[in-house]
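<instruction>
Derive structure tokens from the sequence

<record> Sequence and structure tokens follow
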Amino acid sequence: MLDALRATFRVQWEHLAERAERRLPSLTRHRAPEPLPIRLHQRRVYVMPAAFGLFFALVGVTMLMGALNFNNNAAMLFTFALAGVVLISLPRTVGHLDRMTLSSVRADPVHAGGTVEARLQLLAEDGRARPRLRLRHERLERVFDLEGGDGMQLLLSLPATRRGLMPLGRLTFWTDYPFGVFRAWSVLNPESLLLVYPKPEPHGPPLPRAGRMGEARTPKPHGEDWQGLREFRAGDPMRLVAWKASAREERLLVKEFAEPRGGEVVLDWAALGALEHEARISRLTRWVLMAEAEQRPYRLVLPRESFGPGLGPAHRAQCLTALALLP
């Protein structure tokens, strides 16, 4: 029965908050995104009675009416003392959010369809610990305790539905500390943008052939082309030992072969003219990841810019960022 009442009060509260936001948006949020850091103060912290607070007020009025009806001074003293304790908790609830700062928002890029792990750095300017805080982002809600001193880092998991720059969105910090009678909240709208890479094509063709073949050769024990002889090194297989040459030179020599090494792979936007816009981006993303996995230098050619040739995390991030930000 109690759980059903709580659920009913929660639904009514959310409905009331949505109506208040539509009618009085300046009281519940900032319209424009705010630059970081964002500092909470008393002028942007709002408070209302919670569901338990309304129930407590009804009980208090009932107790007061009974005390007045029976002219019971002890009951009236108890009722007023209890009401005074509850009213004293009002500034404590507001002060629980006051002087709290959101200093930074960071996240590592992920591919579309994954989950962005946003790291929110929270600080308590007065160094006071704040237990039982809540953060709401759309339908997601987190309960956490903000430690004093250097603050804390709060992780927020967000679905990355599409490529490009994803706004963090509105964050609602609220609390009903200490007694659950009042509810204080503040809405933050940081202008942080999170980068989401394109989703790679799940099943696609292999990498295109290298744009040119160089004359360089990579020595390998199982290559195709004769490279020459060299001195024996520990770990060389005995079947590669050139016994006749070793007898003439009076030192142990082994055979060495080489394989041709290809030039950089060209990933050209114009070469994929048969595909749609997003399909091209997905295939180029797949090829960038394949080239990195195979350690083959590559060059990405887009309509207005070109990257590379190169290889490594920095080049990979540069190429994927350019693909993510394509219009």
DSSP finds seven helices and 18 strands in the chain. The first strand starts at residue 38 and ends at 39. Residues 218-262 form one domain.
